Request: fold
Amino acid sequence: MSDTPIPRSPLLEAVAQLLDDAIVTFAQLPEEHELRAVLDRLDEPLRVAIAGKVKAGKSTLLNALVGEELAPTDEGECTRIVTWYRNGHTYRVLAEPSRGVPRQVPFHRDDGAIEVDLGEMRSDEVERLVIDWPSRSLERITLIDTPGIASMSEEVSARSHAFLTPDEDRVTDADAVLYLMKHLHSTDVDFLEAFHDEEVSQATPVNAIGILSRADEVGAGRLDSMESAQRIAARYRSDRKVRRLAQTVLPVAGLIAETGSTLREAEFRALGELARAPAAETEQLLLSVDRFTTGPTSTLLTPPDREVLLARLGLFGVRLSLQLISDGEVTTSSQLASALVERSGLRQLQAALLSQFTERRDVLKARAGLLAAESAIKARPDIESGSLAEAIERITAGAHEFNELRLLNTLRAGASEVKESDVADMERLLGTSGTGARDRLGVAPGSDDAIVASAAAEALSKWQRKAESPMSNPDTAAAARVLVRTCEGILTDLSSS
Reply:
């Protein structure tokens, strides 16, 4: 964990005070423990869960985001357990059983994923694993690997659902979710709807990003596979059903991203040897998985050598690497590693994580705090909590951040009579392309403050006219008033900086 606490925004400070008051109200009741846990959570890094069906590539994506092979990608015992990866001062694995006291357990790592020894405990007896690992990638985000949704084992699926989908008695431990899917299935929609089944600020897509995972397989491993995946993701982004559930949908080739982040010199040399082989021979090898691993070759690479390359890169990754090497675009392992990561879609995902999740950290944390207080009030109708309910209503109604989320949700759900031509501008100003002033205003990165202020003033004037115009319908006028406040906030921040 970080030694330096993250400063609280006024919104987060108000929610912290609410939770302090709620802890006093529900003292010595079971709700007190939950409220204290959520209060402590306000100052932690954002918790982002990675969810999806079995074999969607969750652990592979986690490894790519961390930049190390930490999470096991096979179907071992520990992949059936919700596992937290957080920044720590030292290397430690803590097992928290369903019953009993958490205990530190042994683990080892030999040039690969962490292997945890649960000892006499079975996986179904462990509520969660917490892996502390010193990593700059985990300083701002704690990543949570979850078992597969729609697994053949109902017990395994139930673990992810129980962890991620809130109910009346519990607030989900995740602030946000990356949901991986190969294509949009009814199971995916059902899960995302359940994840959003919360009341504060209404359900909102702001804390979910859809990932078209294993994007390199969309085009059967062809070199244009990522372009095909981009087109499919763009269709999902414009799908109304998806828009109301996820902030965006991005294609990511997780295996390429992971291998690019952890490429070994020996692998680069092996790829270089293949790239120097006769083109006709290489083309034959790349026709299928079987041919690549067992087909004849003039190189010194044995079938096991080629199996390793295939496991690390897949056919698409091998094809891409050979093309980059043959064309002279890369000449070193570090250059190839960088090129693989760039083409995998990982950079776009990291940018989205920064702009959509970490920059909205306080709003997402505050939302969790309000949900916890609401849950406690509902669970104890016999306890006098009128002042807490009033505080929740006051914070929810008065925080502009929540007004923005409500409007965004209304736009995404298509529940507002706003002109289609205005929706894109409204959503951008609400932060769907990033919450920084330049992102919201559509101003080029690096533009000086004078240009930003001019754009903000122009946007302010535009939405003021729509808010006051008798020609605007009630939905447009109400939306415009929210955007006026957003523009005023941008100008205020600029003048005080």
